[in-house]
UniProtKB/TrEMBL annotation:
UniProt name for this protein: Myo-inositol 2-dehydrogenase
Protein's organism: Indibacter alkaliphilus (strain CCUG 57479 / KCTC 22604 / LW1)
InterPro entries: Gfo/Idh/MocA-like_OxRdtase_C, Gfo/Idh/MocA-like_OxRdtase_N, Gfo/Idh/MocA_oxidrdct_glycsds, NAD(P)-bd_dom_sf, TAT_signal, TAT_signal_bac_arc
Signal sequence range: 1-32
Lineage, uppermost ranks: Bacteria, Pseudomonadati, Bacteroidota, Cytophagia, Cytophagales
Coiled-coil region(s): none
Alphabetized UniProt keyword annotations: Oxidoreductase, Signal
A Pfam family this chain is assigned to: GFO_IDH_MocA_C
Broad enzyme group: oxidoreductase
Amino acid sequence: MKRQRRDFLRKLGATGAIAALSPIALSQEAQAKNLIEIKNQFNSENDTTIKLGLIGAGIMGIEDTNSALRHANVELVAVCDLYKGRLDSAKQRWGDHLFVTQDHKELLKRSDVDAVIIATSDHWHKQISIDALNAGKHVYCEKPMVHSVKEGMDVINAWKKSGKVMIVGSQGVSSLGNEKAKELLAEGAIGDIVYAEGFWARMSPEGAWQYAIPKDGNEQTVDWKKYVSNTKSRDWDPLRFFRWRNYLDYGTGMSGDLFVHLFSSLHFITDSYGPNKISSMGGLRYWKDGREVPDVLLGTFDYPETEKHAGFNLSLRCNFVDGTSGTTYLRIVGTKGSMDVKWEEVVVKMNQTMTSDDPFLQEQARLRGDSDTRAAILPPKELVYTAQRNWKGAHYDHFGNWFQAIRTGGTVAEDPVFGFRAAAPALLCNDSYFQNKFIQWDPVNMKLI
């Protein structure tokens, strides 16, 4: 395996080097703090106005559109949603000039729409993405890119054929924290990766997807027949429309909605294609409201050795019954140390000594012939990298990456191939849970084994 390792301390740069040499930093308890610099990556001589259409004006659709409109020379011209109440709200929020419709194909016919944001329920991601690409529109599709692994290659093939720019909305891959972690891992900061773990914790009705049901949410204001037209036909059910994440016909549960963020970040940092063995277990422990998905889920994943990284294992957890509330992290553990990665911060923890206070291990070391050596000046136990305060956030940068690629014909951080490789193990985690078995996956060729 080709893995070039450099001297980590030599690569810290001026700020890190000064911190490491300062008297305070010589203490084992000290932290060396460094700012993660913002790269001026969205400057372009081409400032052509990009006109957007939004398809799916719910929680994420609103958040995505507001982030997009923070960029210069970006306009929203059309909105589509199956619920009329959201169309009315869209005009109140963004202006009466908007063209609004309940039919996404009507929006895609418009010549004044250059690109679309797709923020519908998961079971419509594939078809609307393909329809948009075939209509000559650039696409921003919320994660997960598809509702099942059998849909992935259809989207990839449509994208390649279209010549348009498509990005998948796991915004963490555009974060300063992820970028810094990728750089540090490549420089050998923590040695070779051997293990990683991630965790999502929530403890609120909204966090557990018990969203409010609008008083006017009914068959007269919602195009229910269209909503279920690509899945099992059912009578009108407001819970299945407004709380769709809880139902398998429309959503992808904890793994598709949240694990996919952790997969995206991990794959970006490690240059991994994904795991080849997937397993999961969990259960419905608290939110027994008729949902079809667990509220506690554990997943374990086996990543094979590749040219890019050593073989390692991944453990992911998600808990909607957690009193700590709001906790999330990704930790990467290597042969020399570990990294705790957030979107705005990276904490590197380094192993400085192999000694132990365990009497048994101390005796074994003595029998092995280990001898006391002269004390040494040690580097900091922790190096903390924090985003500059004027950073506008991963959401802003993810859209900036997309707009830049549209204007210049460039590439994006999370194209459909990357997006599918992040979505697949998350979706297969569900399959493992419901089928009670290990799932074998070929991450290179992106197919089941």
